What does this fold into?
Amino acid sequence: MARKFRAQTLGEFIVKQQNAFSYATGDLTRLLTHIGIASRIVNREVNMAGLVDILGETGKENIQGETVKKLDVFANEQFKAILGSSIEVCGLATEEEKDVVSFESDLSKQGKYIVCMDPLDGSSNIDVNVSIGTIFSIYHRISETGNPSVEEDFLQAGIKQVAAGYVLYGSSTMLVYTTGLGVTGFTLDPSIGEYFLSHYQIITPDPGRIYSINEGNYINFPMGVKKYIKYCQEDDPSTNRPYSSRYIGSLVSDFHRNLLKGGIYIYPETTSHPEGKLRLTYECNPIAFLAEQAGGMATDGQGNRILEIPPESIHQRVPFFVGSCEMVKQVEYFMKNNP
Ligand code: AHG
Ligand code: MN
Ligand code: MN
It folds into this structure.
């Protein structure tokens, strides 16, 4: 089948971007390449998940009281092993581990980057063959190189991200990332195990006409969100309403669809999750960086830009409103006027 662009691999593209910076040393290029490699290993397991004894739960809970699936553990171990043996990364914060993981080898301690990661996003969809993902976020360390990473390295506001992205294990596997020069998407050709450029300079349609929220929690939503949902459902052809409701339950998949088609994803504070459910450092910040780079926006529903919220802990949760600017501004309006 004909490709839309000259066949360009992820590796070629990253190197080309690096060449735009005369001061680049190649460390970020290598780091992104390593993430791509680890994602292909996870992808192989995801594809085999129905065939091998990897489905199901480990019987353990993570530090946030959530059931840990075998594939969560597998993905976490893969990324940890590859990042730990790379010489660019001195530490990792992951959803699956209470404390930050500081890589102790002499080479790792020289690494200038730290990574925050949700190794497997959308765990509840693993066993039912529905799309899942990996989310990553990369920062320069603030501690001195040559030493182990410290917690402060991981508590930087999202605005400081050097790069961020996700891998979507869907009907095809895609890697989408940004280094602050727009958002680019690559699709895995499974026959040769290589990512090829497939989506160049993604700009999200604005306004979109998809809203994504777990409406089963409706009764517990803030009044502003309830009003916004009713607004989405109203019949007004002049503003393309009613909008369509779409919710997969994997942030990566829901965001990816809305990124390409135009829409809004909301996970507000609820009675069971008064701080929101999604985690600031390894879910919301990377997705917010991508959203902004694609022309969209991301807030906490109270007028605060996600990327400017200073994290206080690595597993901190935050209400999350992300998508086309016009749609996020509209729900913010309802939130402000219905306290
Ligand atoms: P994770 O599997 O990494 O814990 O993340 C699950 C998150 C996110 O992917 C998704 O958008 C959200 O939880 C779904 O939550 P609900 O089932 O409460 O809608
Ligand atoms: Mn997640
Ligand atoms: Mn996860």
Notes: The chain has a mean pLDDT of 93. Residues 66, 95, 118, 121-124, 214, 249-251, 254, 277 surround AHG (ligand 1) (CB under 6 Å). The two ends are 53 Å apart (CA to CA).
